[in-house]
Amino acid sequence: MKVVAFNGSPKKQGNTFHALQLVCKELEAEGIETEIVHLGNKGIRACTACNKCRENQDEKCIIKTDNVNDWIQKMKNADGILLGSPVHFSSMSANMKAFLDRAFYVSGSNGNLFRHKAGATIAAVRRSGGLPTFNEMNNYINYSEMLIPTSNYWNVIHGTMPGEVLQDEEGVQIMRVLGKNMAYLLKLIEHGKEAITPPERENKTFTHFIR
């Protein structure tokens, strides 16, 4: 089994990275492979709402100037997905937002590529805005019929300078418990495949309220 984690911070080894590492350490202790992808310093274009991914049905965004399509395939092939972002004005980083908009729209437009994978999000923050950022990222996971492991508090960890989050004892415990619970959920999913038939995927019904 494998979990791919995405670091949405401009800093390669800032507090978001350290938080992801705390979770990944617990996953690896349970024999689960992990990979951390640093996207926070890449030039990622925003979704242009062209709908070509839905028309082409090739599991790709039409924008080819960045690595989003490669990352989509990493997510598709992984058993679990971990999303981490710093907090910028009580929100996720711009790069993380651009990446998630495109990746999850491609997924939903091509048969829901991430359905029934384990997915979790974490936010690294100096002081305030962690919970709105955590909730924002969870919107993508909820939209995709993913399965969410939880911790013993919301997945937010505090620190300013790189590495300071390791001094947040409660935050460290939250990440540690999240990692253990994510490993447990992944194993339940894996062992349940032979015993339980998952529900069939329903085609999405689209409605609006203009008559």
Structural overview:
By secondary structure, the protein is of the alpha/beta class. Helices cover 40% and strands 14% of the residues. The chain has one domain: Flavodoxin domain (Rossmann fold, 3-Layer(aba) Sandwich). It has 6 helices and 5 strands. Helix 1 crosses helix 6 (169-192) and helix 3 crosses helix 4 (94-109). The chain is globular, with a radius of gyration of 17 Å.
Number of domains: 1
CATH architecture descriptor: 3-Layer(aba) Sandwich
Mean pLDDT: 97
Per CATH, the class reads Alpha Beta
* CATH homologous superfamily descriptor: Flavodoxin domain
Task: Tell me the fraction of residues in β-strands, as a range.
Answer: 5-15%
Write down the overall geometry.
Answer: globular
**Poorly predicted ranges:** none
Number of helices: 6
Radius of gyration: 17 Å
Order of strands in the sheet with most strands = 2-1-3-4-5
Major sheet size, sense and barrel closure? 5 strands, parallel
Given helix and strand content, the structural type is: alpha/beta
Would you report the number of β strands? 5
Based on the model shown, name its key terms.
211 residues; alpha/beta; Rossmann fold; five-stranded parallel beta sheet; globular
Short note summarizing the structure:
By secondary structure, this protein is of the alpha/beta class.
Write the layout of secondary structure elements.
Blueprint: E1 2-7, H1 15-29, E2 33-38, H2 52-56, H3 68-77, E3 80-86, H4 94-109, E4 118-125, H5 130-143, E5 156-158, H6 169-192
Parallel strand pairs: 1-2, 1-3, 3-4, 4-5
Helix pairs in contact: 1-6, 3-4
